[in-house]
């Protein structure tokens, strides 16, 4: 199909895959969604060219890209954290012919998607307490990497989602085994971050620690399979992972007070969700001394929609009237 100037192009770049789609105004076009593996590709532009040729797209008015990494202050470029790519707005404008290109951190895009999430894509982890409709929210990415972004509502219906790189803050420690894991990471990486422990690769790293390996050679999928088979090392690694995740989210909850809810997104979050209750996630989340009871106020959900960031990009570029006049 040949697209007209009514359409914008959207891309959500993770550490492993890139999702691409089209939007008309704030509405994502579901039939246009495509997924591309990043492995073997040198640049995002390769994927965009392939997509545009396959879909016979021309005359785009805007592009919005969600990047799993920090975006420059002036919004002209972004550097992927877990992939050797630099995303440049100028290069995307040249490839697409679009007059306007927006680069967002991927968690910002997820934040802009929250208002449109269907209840059917939410798995409840903690009910929390009722709060005013415009209460702050927090979206947390637990995938190849780890990051989070607060979501605030501004006058006129706009959503304000500040960028963050909180995956690179210090890993929380609340037990002797956490201390041992932290020292293991410090020996290998010189610094033990939340992302080292709580991203999807964190489970792989913790399993390597538990089994006495120097490097993480067992994949997350293999560890999950071992967990279903009641493998003791896999279950121990998952228990450490889940309690570290709970502690990190508790810290973020007290930092941002997201009474409107905490929303966990990403493949690793979805994969461990069935194990959270039995592995003491909520106990770790609420382990905040005199504020432990306070932690029950925050609703927590896992988001099943794998394409929410694309919808967030569409909402952002439409509500900010970027390139759509």
TrEMBL record:
Organism: Thioclava kandeliae
Alphabetical keyword list: Kinase, Transferase
Protein name per UniProt: ROK family protein
Superkingdom of the organism of origin: Bacteria
Protein family: Belongs to the bacterial glucokinase family.
Biological classification of the source: Bacteria, Pseudomonadati, Pseudomonadota, Alphaproteobacteria, Rhodobacterales
InterPro entries: ATPase_NBD, Bacterial_glucokinase, Glucokinase
